[in-house]
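Hey,

Quick one before I head out. I ran the complex with nicotinamide-adenine-dinucleotide overnight. Inputs first:
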Amino acid sequence: MLIFDEITRNNHEQVVFCHDETTGLRAIIAIHDTTLGPALGGTRFYPYASDQDALVDALRLSRGMTYKSAAAGLNLGGGKAVIIGNPKRLKNEMLFRAYGRFVQGLAGRYITAEDVGTTVRDMEWVRRETDHVTGISRALGGSGDPSPMTALGVFVGMKAALSFKTGAESLAGKRVSVQGVGAVGRHLVDFLVQDGAQVVICDIDQDNLRAVANKHPDVLVVAPDDIYDAAVDIYAPCAMGATLNPDTIGRLKAHVVAGSANNQLAEEDRDGAALAARDIIYTPDYVINAGGLINVANELEGYNDERAHQQVSGIFDIIQEIFRLAATEGVLPYKAANTLALRRIAGISQIKNHWCGVQSQGRSRDWIR
Ligand code: NAD
């Protein structure tokens, strides 16, 4: 693998390899684009099969964060880090503090948070060595668990899609299937039930399923594979990725897909087109699930619950703007989301050409909308 070719292929700005002999830390921090602001993205702790896999993942994920922050209207760039190894064996305070010192060394160009394999507790260890970390517990002034805010974003994004498709914004009487009632899905069910929707759920985890079914006795429970055949208006994938594929799309009765899962389309072009051919409107995953990111970004200005709620609710307008753009330009919604993100980055980079005084020129605050 030619490392510089990999890094320059999608125009990454900087990639940092971190090594600490004492703790066994081996990490890669990838900064994709900082046009809009410092690169924010979580730290993934994963036993990659090879260093190459780890680099490719860091590059892919950091680029995704550039688009996600830009589309969400945040003044943040895209970054991501991976720690290579088995978190169950390697995790300890020293390792995370060693990692935190590398993050600190980037002087705020990269701001980290939790991701797969890392927790709020781990980030609190990181915080002992760096200011450039988010996703801290509420007790320490942070934003805490992002899942309720992710669910709120999905809820308002779903309403935006429904309103675009049918003109109706309320979910009262609408049938919605939620695949996966974990951290995000169970909060989404709360919002849906409260709004008067008829909800169908499934999960492979019986405890999660039972908790939601006990709380909401009117919710209908189906077997995991039956979720694709459920007679619903809206399908909300809130479990794993790639559930929209040639095996499932033909089975869907829903005319709106709006859920939190990452990478819902198994293959973007093929499956995006297959949904459109069936007149099913697809709400781009990385935009509708940005509530958690908007929530952690709030920490950078001093966390404020009311402001965070207001900003996450803004996902409604962003989704509608994406659908309007898709209709005007005759493209699929996920392409329109990418266009919206790229145009914002290009536009902001232009206005930064103007000199605005010595005091203001280096201003790098206001991460959030
Ligand atoms: P979670 O692990 O808490 O919940 C996922 C649930 O899906 C679990 O209950 C699991 O048992 C269930 N599940 C797994 N496979 C299933 C299957 N085949 N059929 C039915 N249920 C299945 O995860 P989460 O934090 O709720 O996240 C859900 C999705 O949203 C993930 O794809 C995640 O990447 C994405 N996401 C989450 C957040 C967040 O704030 N938590 C933010 C952005 C995106």
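The chain has a mean pLDDT of 95.

Talk tomorrow,
K.
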